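Private note to self, pasted from the team thread so I don't lose it. Backbone tokens:
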């Protein structure tokens, strides 16, 4: 059974980190522990030496992060533009975790679709983790609101569609703050509410992670907010156990 993790960020200081650590280790029981990364910056081709250097950089960063999560990942691969489709497919199918990195979700999704990896990922039975832009790529609809100089207009296109969810990372609402600060610029809440008249969005704070399986949607850390019909709605949940781990199951029908 496939398991999808939608994340704004993965950091030890976040409220979601402990639950993530417990659930990922549960999901990985009996696995070979191979991880494949798909970059969020896929607009250029790299020479083999550059790919090797970049892979080493990701591997070093990932090793630290995975050690903090209590995961002994034994093999790392970074997919890049110079690889042949059959090589990319083989790497994914032999992985226990496919990790969609943050960055530019439009480039990332274009790379996935151009190489025919969208169908492979939708039928993949392992764990897929998407962080920041990677979580947006995983969504049913890839929605990029106006944000700084990089994204001056709203961009909406069909996402990877791993589930029915449309996730907006780094999004937590406070009445006194009408702007969401991101590394690319500020997002205006009014723009998100306008988009929500046509597309339901789950606003995921930096302290929240969603775990999606065919059995339900589970909340790690902060409860997301629902943006729908131009309004912000609170969501309910019920507590239940996955194995021995107490989790919050989201009550959300779509």
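Design output:
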């Amino acid at each position: 059974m496939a398991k999808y993790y939608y994340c704004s960020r993965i950091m030890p200081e976040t409220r979601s980190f402990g639950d993530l650590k417990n659930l990922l280790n549960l999901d990985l029981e009996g696995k070979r522990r191979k991880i494949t990364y798909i970059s969020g910056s896929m607009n250029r081709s790299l020479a083999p030496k550059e790919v090797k250097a970049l892979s080493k950089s990701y591997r070093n960063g990932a090793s630290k992060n995975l050690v903090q999560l209590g995961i002994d990942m034994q093999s790392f691969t970074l997919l890049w533009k110079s690889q042949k489709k059959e090589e990319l497919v083989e790497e994914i199918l032999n992985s226990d975790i496919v990790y969609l990195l943050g960055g530019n979700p439009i480039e990332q999704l274009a790379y996935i679709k151009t190489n025919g990896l969208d169908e492979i990922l939708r039928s993949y039975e392992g764990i897929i983790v998407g962080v920041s832009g990677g979580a947006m790529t995983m969504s049913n609809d890839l929605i990029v609101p106006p944000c700084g100089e990089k994204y001056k207009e709203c961009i909406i296109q069909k996402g990877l569609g791993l589930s029915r969810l449309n996730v907006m990372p780094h999004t937590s609402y406070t009445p006194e703050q009408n702007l969401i600060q991101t590394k690319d610029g500020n997002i205006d809440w009014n723009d998100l509410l306008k988009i929500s008249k046509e597309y339901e969005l789950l606003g995921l704070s930096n302290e929240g992670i969603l775990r999606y399986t065919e059995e339900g949607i589970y909340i790690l850390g902060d409860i997301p907010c629902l943006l729908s019909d131009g309004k912000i709605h609170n969501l309910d949940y019920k507590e239940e156990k996955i194995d021995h781990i107490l989790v919050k199951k989201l009550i959300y029908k779509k």
